[in-house]
Structure formats: C-alpha cells, structure tokens
Write a structure and sequence with these properties.
Number of strands: 16
CATH topology of the largest domain: Pseudouridine synthase
Radius of gyration: 22 Å
CATH superfamily of the largest domain: Pseudouridine synthase
Order of helices and strands: EHEEEHEEEHEEHEEHEHEEEE
CATH architecture of the largest domain: 2-Layer Sandwich
Number of helices: 6
Distance between the termini: 12 Å
Structural class: alpha+beta
CATH class of the largest domain: Alpha Beta
Largest sheet: 9 strands, mixed
Length: 296
C-alpha cells in the first residue's frame, strides 16, 4: 500500500499518536507524517504510506496555513492553553486598532524565539524534555517568515486570526510575543491547520472515516491522487520500455523535458514510478524509485 493520506487531526492527540492509529487501521508499518502538529491543534496532517514515505524530503520546507484564537490577559509556560499560567490573570478589553497595529509588526521576515516546550534541540536534547524537568531552556531566536497574518475578529480579551507562514514558524510564539508587547501576557487558545503545501482541509479525512473505509475496502478513495503531488515538478508518462528502465534505477531519455531539473514519472494515470533528476541534456536518472525493485 503506497500513497499520501491527509488526516484531519483531532485535538488531544500527538502527531505520533495519529501515525500509530493509522498504522493499525491500514495494517501497515511504513507510515510517516509531513510535519508535526501540537496535541492541542487540529487540522491538516499529511501522512505518507509505504514507498511514498520517500517523498518526505520534498516537504521539509513546506508553507503552512492556520486559523486560531489568541487569548490575552495571562501567559503560559507552553505558550498555549495546555500550559500552566506564568502570570496573574488580568481583565483585558482589546481594541481592534491596537491588535491590528500589533499584528502588522509580525508580518514578513522576523526574528522569533521558539517555545521552550518545542522539539528544538539543545545539545542534542529536545527542549520540551528539559522544560518538563523544569530545567532552564535557552533557545536562540531564529529567522522565520509570516507571509500573511490577518486579524479576523477582536472581542473582549480574544482575537481570531488567519496566517500563512513559512516552515519553522511557531504561532504559539507569535501569541506569546504579542502578549509581551501589550504588557498583559497572552497565549494561543486554539489552532487549526488549514493547509500544508498543496494539501488542504478539502483533502482531509477523520480517523473514523479512515477506519470505516478500511472496513469497507474503500481506502483507495481516500488517498490523494498521485497527480496532485508536488505540483511544481512537471509530470511525464513513461512508455513500457522507459518504465522498465526507471523501475530498475537506470537512466532514461526524456527529450520533451530537456529544461526541467526534475520530473515525476508516471506509468498510467495513477502509478507514480519515480522522481527523476536530469543528468545531462535530455538524460534523466531516477533519483527516487517509488515502484519497482529499488523501491522494495
């Protein structure tokens, strides 16, 4: 079983929890995810299954979209609603104009300090493991990009937002830093991921839907169509002879793609054979074989 599944992750589960559940549902050990979601967060969690786990390397820097709510009045140690308060709660009534002006400061390329409860490593140890032991966590600020940050609604001590960000951006840190800027503390109250790379909520299925499809032998209907994967890379249809060469990891001549650096090679409409890289001229080598002897 090879493919890409998009799960609508429920709150309360880690991304690894979801992977384990899907492994049991599919009865397939080879399942991975394309970027974690915090346990509190919900939404788009792309999973790669079988040989298509090899595609994960193409999604390490994927753009992501979110919707969520920030609550002002107190900060937490995790920067979200699951953490312990680190400041006394204040009664806050936000003004739309001040929140809009503050949000503008977070758009574009900014320096951001990751949350102490995060997977960022300190001398090889994930920061969250140190934080759980109440050890000091000192993380360096890193450069991130917030491409869009729209305040949707401001009401009392909360604001809802929509954001589109580059990989590595923490919306928890945005919430925390906005609270610091207003001097009242803040944390991320809710977060829903609406897109990762080319995958959106329209592609997503609940774990219950996945389990039902497995019972009814209808799993194929839930996998993302292979033609939708990696849309920036052009597709080429291989004839029988070319497909045989690609499956065995040999080079193949693709004259119609002399200018492309990489191509997705298909046999038929749904069988993604390989990601091939141009060697020279019109000669391509199957860098990643997804179907065939080399993919076993």
């Amino acid at each position: 079983m090879n493919g890409v599944l998009i799960v609508d992750k429920p709150g309360g589960l880690t991304s690894h929890d979801v992977v384990n559940r899907v492994r049991r549902i599919l009865q397939q050990k080879s399942v991975g995810h394309l970027g974690t979601l915090d346990p509190m967060a919900t939404g788009v969690l792309p999973l790669v299954v079988g040989n298509l786990t090899r595609l994960a390397q193409f999604y390490t820097a994927s753009e992501k979209c979110y919707e969520g709510t920030i609550r002002f009045g107190f900060a937490t140690d995790t920067y979200d609603a699951e953490g312990e308060p680190t400041s006394a709660a204040q009664q806050i009534t936000l003004r739309s104009d001040e929140v809009e002006a503050l949000a503008a400061r977070f758009r574009g390329v900014i320096e951001q300090t990751p949350p102490p409860f995060s997977a960022k490593k300190i001398q090889g140890v994930p920061a969250y493991k140190l934080a759980r032991k109440q050890k000091e966590v000192v993380l360096k600020a890193v450069q991130v990009e917030i491409k869009e940050f729209e305040i949707l609604k401001v009401e009392a001590d909360r604001c809802s937002f929509r954001a589109r960000v580059a990989s590595g951006t923490y919306m928890r840190s945005v919430a925390h830093e906005m609270g610091q800027a207003l001097g009242c503390g803040a944390h991320l109250e809710s977060l829903r991921r609406t897109a990762v790379a080319e995958f959106t909520l329209d592609d997503a299925h609940t774990l219950e839907q996945l389990a039902d499809a497995a019972k009814n032998a209808a799993l194929d209907d839930l996998f993302v169509h292979p033609r939708k994967l990696l849309p920036a890379i052009p597709s080429v249809m291989a004839d029988e002879a070319a497909a045989a060469r690609i499956r065995s990891g040999r080079t193949v001549n693709l004259p119609e793609f002399s200018r492309a650096r990489q191509v997705k090679v298909f046999a038929g409409q749904r069988e993604l054979l390989a990601i091939a890289t141009r060697v020279a001229g019109t000669l391509f080598h199957a860098k990643i074989v997804l179907c065939g002897p080399d993919a076993a």
